[in-house]
Amino acid sequence: MTEAADARYMALAVSLGRRGQGNAWPNPAVGCVIVHEGRIVGRGWTAPGGRPHAEPQALAQAGALARGATAYVTLEPCAHHGQTPPCAQTLIDAGVARVVVAIEDNDPRVAGRGLAQMRAAGIQVDTGVLAAEAAQDLAGFRLARGQGRPWVTLKLASSFDGRIATATGESQWITGPEARRAVHAMRVSHDAVMVGAGTARADDPSLTVRGMGNVRQPVRVVVSRRLDLPLSSTLAQTAGDVPLWLCHGPDADAPLAEAWDGIGAKRLECALAGGQLDPASVLQALAQAGLTRVFCEGGGALAASLLSAGLVDELVGFTAGAVIGAEGRPAVGVMGVERLASAPRFDLVETRAVGGDILHRWQRKVA
């Protein structure tokens, strides 16, 4: 294969892997393409819930044509026995002649073992094709394995002057229907949607994906130190239908904890820092529970705590052509930034019009 052909087939594998984002956790959303004599004979991506993996699905499509073929995989095939056999051995057994891998797996159970296993079996293994693209898509899984926390996207929909509500709390709707639909599409590609207790109380949100067809709903996460959320809320009333996880402190009210348990919510006890829930502890608990990609929709206090702790990987802003004024509620709470040099900085990735609003997307600035 030429370098151009390798890049073309890997680009397809990357696009297939994206179909699993938001569905595959706790496993990575991997894409795989099998090519035999210049013809695509198998395609696969990680199934909902994390299995089957991408490789066995693509190999099943290829059938006998997998023998002597080239497999393009966005992440190093696993080498450990879990609920399914290791994908490296499955590729070996299928008689694949060459495997092209975008990036290695930093999971300690794999970490090069899959590559070594295939090479030992006589398979030609090449790595690094579209590595940057694959690493971006798999950043949540890699963070969960390497740093014990998920990827965090912070979404803020605000007026031109950075307000998310009027002084009276009115916020529906600052941005238009096109922007709101775009947000639902973003929710689909994340494992969970997260808000703070203040937002949950003020807005009574459902935090579900709507208007996107029959999709797997993301986990709904509310960060509430004392669990002081209305049991009559939409979240509470639907806790038995769509997963609802509550991150709380060790001092949460015991009767409230029992009540939330009774309606089907999952509780994650987290540590305190400075009298508030420690955002690092919250993310660690979510990663330990299997989440790799979290879509945070505020409010201001939670956004400020995540930004101050350096735990936001991507900022997504929807800015409307409305001006509310200083009395309105700010998109981000108090951060105590006194010098510009200490303010969190992000690099611009994308900007475009969405209906009558502006979408701007930023990622953590790399020094």
Automatic annotation (TrEMBL):
Function: Converts 2,5-diamino-6-(ribosylamino)-4(3h)-pyrimidinone 5'-phosphate into 5-amino-6-(ribosylamino)-2,4(1h,3h)-pyrimidinedione 5'-phosphate.
Pathway this chain belongs to: Cofactor biosynthesis; riboflavin biosynthesis; 5-amino-6-(D-ribitylamino)uracil from GTP: step 3/4; Cofactor biosynthesis; riboflavin biosynthesis; 5-amino-6-(D-ribitylamino)uracil from GTP: step 2/4
Domain of life: Bacteria
Gene Ontology biological-process annotations: riboflavin biosynthetic process
Domain CMP/dCMP-type deaminase: 1-126
GO molecular function, one term: NADP binding
Keywords: Hydrolase, Metal-binding, Multifunctional enzyme, NADP, Oxidoreductase, Riboflavin biosynthesis, Zinc
Residue sites binding Zn(2+) per the record: 53, 78, 87
Chain sites annotated for binding NADP(+): 157, 173, 199, 299-305
Residue sites binding substrate per the record: 171, 187, 203, 207, 210, 297
EC numbers: 3.5.4.26, 1.1.1.193
Family, per entry: In the C-terminal section; belongs to the HTP reductase family.
Cofactor binding, note field: Binds 1 zinc ion.
Protein name: Riboflavin biosynthesis protein RibD
Cofactor requirements of the protein: Zn(2+)
Transmembrane segments: none
Catalytic activity: 2,5-diamino-6-hydroxy-4-(5-phosphoribosylamino)-pyrimidine + H2O + H(+) = 5-amino-6-(5-phospho-D-ribosylamino)uracil + NH4(+); 5-amino-6-(5-phospho-D-ribitylamino)uracil + NADP(+) = 5-amino-6-(5-phospho-D-ribosylamino)uracil + NADPH + H(+)
Record: active site: 55 (proton donor)
The keyword Cell cycle is assigned to this record: no
Record carries keyword Hydrolase: yes
